[in-house]
Amino acid sequence: MHFIVNGLQHDLLLDTRMSLLDMLRERLALTGTKKGCNQGACGACTVLVEGERINACLALAVQYENRPITTIEGLGDAEELHALQRAFIAHDGFQCGYCTPGQICSAIGMAREAARGVPSAVTTDLVMEEVELSHDELRERMSGNLCRCGAHNGIVEAIQATFVREDAA
């Protein structure tokens, strides 16, 4: 099977039952994507596929053959961090850091969803071309990503600093 991960091509022979998460971690040694609950409840395994966020623990790798996959390792590096990675540092958006890769990938996907006008459970105007990321809107959209050590306020501040326009705040 042929995979495109972080812009690199990978040809792998896989068991068709292997999750995308296990492929990333075990076959490609991309361990930034975390295995938390392995049931899709915590969001630690969130990655981007064609720019959309998914829980890699719930996805079979074969479903994503030939589709661009981005993990935390593909967003930035030590030389040039992604803007959201820099914001997490500036706003103290992590303590243990275990959920951080999933939080960051999820926030990037979430911001793209809002920019396309995809509504959430708290969106009041369902026909907006772009959903403004209010405090409640942002928290609802990120509710699938859990932080167990209490850095949630810093995470929200980092996301707001990166994706919320000043006139929308």
Automatic annotation (TrEMBL):
Domain 2Fe-2S ferredoxin-type: 1-75
Keywords of this entry: 2Fe-2S, Iron, Iron-sulfur, Metal-binding, Oxidoreductase
Matches recorded under Gene3D superfamilies: 3.10.20.30, [2Fe-2S]-binding domain (1.10.150.120)
Domain of life: Bacteria
Record GO terms (molecular function): 2 iron, 2 sulfur cluster binding; metal ion binding; oxidoreductase activity, acting on the aldehyde or oxo group of donors
Pfam families: Fer2, Fer2_2
SUPFAM superfamilies, alphabetized: 2Fe-2S ferredoxin-like, CO dehydrogenase ISP C-domain like
Transmembrane feature ranges: none
Protein name from the UniProt record: 2Fe-2S iron-sulfur cluster binding domain-containing protein
